[in-house]
Automatic annotation (TrEMBL):
GO terms for molecular function: methyltransferase activity. It is an enzyme of class 2 (transferase). This is Class I SAM-dependent methyltransferase. One of its GO terms (biological process) is methylation. Keywords: Methyltransferase, Transferase. The keyword Disulfide bond does not apply. Its EC number is 2.1.-.-. The keyword Oxidoreductase does not apply. Pfam families: Methyltransf_11. Residues 46-145 form the Methyltransferase type domain. It comes from Flavonifractor hominis.
């Protein structure tokens, strides 16, 4: 396995290293993504594909009276996220579980927000996964997608050759899949200079 496969599913020591690198490497795009929404302080949040846990920490800061759940299918990512957010877990404000976005292990209409930072590239079928997100969101809840690649920068395609199972989507593809999955109001934000994309979709 090449080291960059750890972006898809961190494993072993290389995965542990990658999870830490993702926390710092994605900090700016995540910050920009968060700037496009305003979160309720008592919100219930699910961060899917939580990686190293940095975005869980940001959600906890924004929703100080709420609760944040992290979900990842990588054991290494779950452990890293738990370590980074250990204090909040101890206080009962956070939990991090291993699980799959195509079968989210929660009942219907639980969360006010679901976020996906730098992760939908690896999801196994957008409509199925987006429908699962829609199912666990409360009515009026928001699904926040934030990608460092907006599908219009040809040089980004090199990553799809290096990382197995990766697909970079453009805005139209993501919006179409969100509509198919039942989302109604869909707002898109693009940083054209950096090719960043953020989508806030309301159930």
């Amino acid at each position: 396995m090449n080291f960059f496969e750890n972006t898809r599913k961190p494993q072993g020591f290389g995965g542990k290293l990658m999870a830490k690198m993702m926390n710092s490497g994605h900090a700016k795009v995540s910050q920009w993504g968060f700037s496009n929404i305003s979160a309720k302080p008592d919100a219930k949040v699910l961060d899917v594909g939580c990686g190293g846990g940095a975005n869980i920490a940001t959600w906890l800061d924004k929703c100080r009276n709420g609760h944040v759940t992290g979900l990842d299918y990588s054991e290494v990512s779950v452990a890293e996220s738990q370590e980074l957010n250990a204090a909040a877990i101890k206080q009962g404000k956070c939990r991090v579980l291993q699980g799959d976005v195509s079968a989210i292990p929660f009942s219907d209409e639980v969360f006010d927000y679901v976020s996906a930072f730098e992760t939908v590239y690896f999801w196994p079928g957008l409509k199925k996964c987006f429908s699962e997100v829609n199912r666990v969101l409360k009515s009026g809840g928001t699904f926040l997608i934030c990608n460092e690649s907006d599908g219009t920068n040809a040089s980004d395609e090199k990553w799809t050759k290096i990382i197995g199972g990766m697909k970079i989507y453009n805005r139209d593809q993501l919006v179409a899949a969100l509509k198919e999955a039942g989302f109604t109001e869909i707002k898109t934000y693009i940083n054209a200079k950096k090719h960043w994309m953020c989508i806030a979709a309301t159930k």
